[in-house]
Write a structure and sequence with these properties.
Two copies of one chain form a homodimer. Chain A has helices at 5-26, 34-44, 50-57, 61-73, 95-118, 122-136, 151-167, 231-245, 260-268, and strands at 77-81, 89-93, 141-145, 191-197, 200-209, 214-222, 250-255, 272-273, 285-290. Chain A has a seven-stranded mixed sheet, sandwiched between helices. Chain A is of the alpha+beta class. Chain A has two domains: 5-118, Arc Repressor Mutant, subunit A (Orthogonal Bundle), CATH 1.10.10; 139-290, Gcn5-related N-acetyltransferase (GNAT) (Aminopeptidase), CATH 3.40.630.30. Chain A is 46% helix and 19% strand. Chain A is globular. Chain A binds a DNA duplex through residues 33-35, 50-51, 54, 59-66, 68-69, 85-89. Chains A, B: Keywords: Acyltransferase, Transferase.
Chain lengths: 291, 291
DNA sequence: ACACATTGCTGACTTAAGTCAGACATATGC
DNA sequence: GCATATGTCTGACTTAAGTCAGCAATGTGT
């Protein structure tokens, strides 16, 4: 019985094929073949344009057409010509279609909830699933600008504060730190960037400006499941690009000696240590970078 | 953008469906439909008995038969009557079949190796995959008797020693501890039990006897990815059952105060603390259970 | 205005997978 | 020894999925 990496991966494949297979056939639970269900769900998720649909699901033009006709006959979908190009067609859900779509969503959610309820170590499982999903799909991590008050940003910041609390010997209390105003981290003064892997926010960085030529980097965080992939570096590069775009010439940041991997990154990417420039109680390292 | 458990699970499903789907179609890479390839692989993995095959792959009797005929026509498989029951049939690979089977194995291994090479955090990924696979298939954890020198047992023991080294403040050196003779943990004197989840050993326990009515429980270990599932308790129950079977009436064990969850388990399952009964340098807790 | 490209659609076809009923040989219990 | 159960096989059928060629409508460049 070999216990090498390869047999472990293959064990994983077997386990997941079975589980995901069960998920696939569950789509049959509503009396509709998988193909039709996939089309219905894609439309429900906003991919109504027939060409987009084909592309997303990887289907042949003829097959797509037939599946759409089937859903039309069921009264779940209507297709209308595209407003600006009459060759193209756009599919949309009818009232009945929306109902059926929600039924699939509920089914899918229920299955996920079920897994959570059955496994006594939900948190560990979720973390492991995040890591696997990130590893499998990591080409797809995109960096996007977001409102620092958006769900994605708040999720990252909450995790960031929690991690500071664990790692700083003093603990961490947001109220004592200078929590930047949202407007300082949005255009035109600054920016807030979120790294997203297939819908899950996995990292963030804030650029806090005051309208002048100096700005601060704040809140650099990468979720544990996405570490080791060079994402922090990508986030910093994106933040610097945004700074250049805003006409900023000098960047500063503060950090803490407990955050060793962050300090290492700064030192390796052209930041130089400077004197303390604020009276925030938590940081004990201060850096600057001129661009 | 919701970041709840359910959307995380669904993200995982998407990532894995894509990856495993690619793996599935790769089976077509050798010009044979998935069904036939699955049968060939199952036979290669020792499931030649036609009934076993059907059961394992979840196929209809007729379909199985047809797929076997197909493989026979290709010259990859021969079916012979079962030696003890002429109604049953057993399929076996021919020389060409074995070659084709190894080609599939190589393909599958290559894919796994590829994943490892592409992801910079192989160890973390493997651990996460183990945990997910265990969670998905945990109904299937079987407890089996094994030779303490078998691959599976050695794997568990190695992990066990490594964990002791990390957790005991003194470290742990097998050479200083009393490493039981293999024969003491095999019938008729004792037993060695391994918990196996779809081929991966995930826990073990040894019953070390000397031929008398007293025996010791040794080497209780559960791998991190399978903790929290009550497996240690199951292993202990299986060990006690084996002891009863061997006519043993008194069980003893030693442990260390650093292994808190183990001590808790012993106290909850009828073990009572006794005086030190050996001079092994590592243990500082001693228990006994009469049956 | 014309040739040509693009888009979606339809009909005819193939392959894979699976279901069902019944045939046939072999085992098992009484 | 006989009725019944079990295990495998075959033939006839269905469904899902996908491919391919060609058609009709619409857009684009010259």
């Amino acid at each position: 019985m070999p216990i090498d990496a390869i047999s472990r991966i293959r064990r994983f494949n077997r386990a997941v094929t079975a589980a995901v297979g069960a998920l696939d056939t569950s789509f049959l639970g509503r009396g509709r073949p998988l193909g039709a269900a996939r089309v219905l769900n894609a439309i429900g998720h906003g991919r109504g344009d027939v060409a987009t649909l084909r592309d997303y699901l990887g289907l042949d033009s003829g097959l797509t057409s037939r599946l759409l006709r089937g859903l039309e006959e069921e009264g779940l979908v209507v297709t209308l010509p595209h407003p600006s190009d009459a060759r193209r067609r756009v599919a949309a859900l009818t009232e009945a279609g929306r109902k059926e779509f929600s039924a699939y969503e509920a089914l899918s959610n229920g299955q996920a909830a079920d897994l959570m309820a059955r496994f006594p170590r939900g948190d560990d499982l979720l973390r492991a699933m995040d890591l696997v999903a990130t590893a499998f799909g990591r080409e797809g991590i995109a960096i996007e600008e977001a409102d620092p008050r958006s769900d994605a940003a708040v999720h990252c910041l909450t995790e960031y504060y929690a991690e500071l609390g664990r790692r700083l010997s003093t603990g961490f209390d947001v109220a004592l730190s200078r929590d930047p105003e949202a407007a300082d981290m949005m255009r035109p003064r600054g920016a807030f960037l979120v790294a997203v892997s297939d819908g899950l926010p996995v990292g963030c960085v804030g650029l806090k400006g005051k309208g002048g030529e100096v700005a601060e980097i704040k809140r650099l965080w990468v979720c544990p499941s996405a570490r080791g992939l060079g994402l922090a570096r990508r986030l910093m590069e994106a933040a610097e690009a945004a700074a250049r775009d805003l006409g900023i010439t000098t960047l500063r940041l503060d950090s803490n000696s407990a955050l060793t991997e962050a300090l290492q990154l700064y030192r390796r990417t052209g930041w130089i240590e400077i004197e303390r420039f604020n009276d925030d109680p938590y940081p004990d390292f201060f850096f600057e970078k001129r661009m």
